[in-house]
Amino acid sequence: MDKVQKYLWVFTALIVFLAVQKIPKADGASKANMYDLHDDLFTSRGYKKQVRPIADDSNSLFVYLAFSLLSLVDHAGQARRHLAARCPGGQQRHKADTTGVSVGSTKVL
């Protein structure tokens, strides 16, 4: 690992640490409010794609991180559905067979 990667890891860890430390100390926020926010951001029950943070606030780093993670998960799900639509039965092709081992679409006995 070179020097730049080490600094990048340290910087990322510092940002995550500061974001986590800032959440419980938010002004006027109770534990119940934090749990509600967590449910709204991280569960499918409360997640709404059309809701995005609109203002840069010093306390909004966690919100940006949460929406970024949810967007990545959403893109991964779309890619999985797209791949499944293009090759139906593609997952069964890679499973082991009782008479041999399946490698791609070729069976090795």
From TrEMBL:
Residues 1-28 form the signal peptide. Keywords: Signal. Residues 85-109 are annotated as: Disordered. Residues 99-109 have a biased composition (Polar residues). This is Uncharacterized protein. It comes from Plakobranchus ocellatus.
